[in-house]
Amino acid sequence: RDDYQALKTLTRRFENSISSNVAVQSLLTYVKEKVGIVVGDENEIAIKMLSAVGHELSIACGFEQIDTWSISIQRPAKETEDGIEIDVLKPIANKRAVDCDISRSRSWPIDVGVTGRVFQTKEPVRVGDMTDAAVQSALGHEAVQPNVYRSIFATPIIPDGMDDCWGVVIATSDEADHFRAHNGPDQSHYEPLVQFAALIELALGIRDLNIRCPDDPPVKS
Questions:
Q1: CB 49 within 8 A of CB 30
Q2: What angle do CA 17, 101, 83 make, to 5 degrees?
Q3: Strand ranges for the chain from DSSP E
């Protein structure tokens, strides 16, 4: 039985690795064929990229059918609360275990929670268990919802030549320590998210180059 479980785990890791490669290749194809000629809305580029490979990306992240999970792209925005304008991080695209209209996704103050920390420090954050008292103290009880998700990984999107953080890719899971590192061929359940953020950065860089050099042939990477 132990050998069977070990083989099953190893097989799953190879499947994750393959799915990760599929997701990356699909995104590279999208960037080369589509984004290279786009000079329009930058949010729309990121939205289309998640839509194009959201399923493969979820598999690469190790999410199972029985899991409750989400992958989201969040961007800085302005919202009014009690008549006061505040800076928030607002979801512009998501992929979930159970589909949810983006209009129902919650925004958070720009200095609150995991996304707020990633946005301000420009560094990835991995949280193994949101029920941990130390985590709740560090992030603030308002931003911790362990009844909704137990573990989180978030990484910044910072296009080349940009000093500020453009946005954040964040994934959540109802499984504690889901985004732990592995020694297997898939490396981790968070590496595909880092690759996804890097490809968004590439796509936005191509868009910016095409806007700044409109008379040149479109860059297709």
A1: yes
A2: 125
A3: 69-81, 84-96, 108-109, 125-127, 151-157, 167-173
**Mind spelling out the 3-state secondary structure of 48-108?**
HHHHHHHHHHHHHCCCCCCCCEEEEEEEEEEEEECCEEEEEEEEEEEEECCCCCHHHCCCE
| Consecutive H or E run containing 32 | helix 2-33
**Binning pLDDT at 50, 70 and 90, where does residue 60 land?**
confident
Q: What predicted TM-score, i.e. pTM, was given to this entire model? A: 0.79
Q: What number of other Cβ atoms are within 10 A of residue 11's Cβ?
A: 10
Residue 116: other Cβ atoms inside 10 A: 23
Structure token pair of residue 129? 């268990």
Whether the CB-CB separation of 68 and 173 falls below 8 Å is answered with yes
Distance between CA atoms of 178 and 173, rounded to whole angstroms?
A: 7
Average of pLDDT values for 156-176?
A: 93
Directed axis angle between helix 2-33 and helix 42-60, to 10°?
Answer: 160
DSSP run (H or E) holding 114: helix 113-121
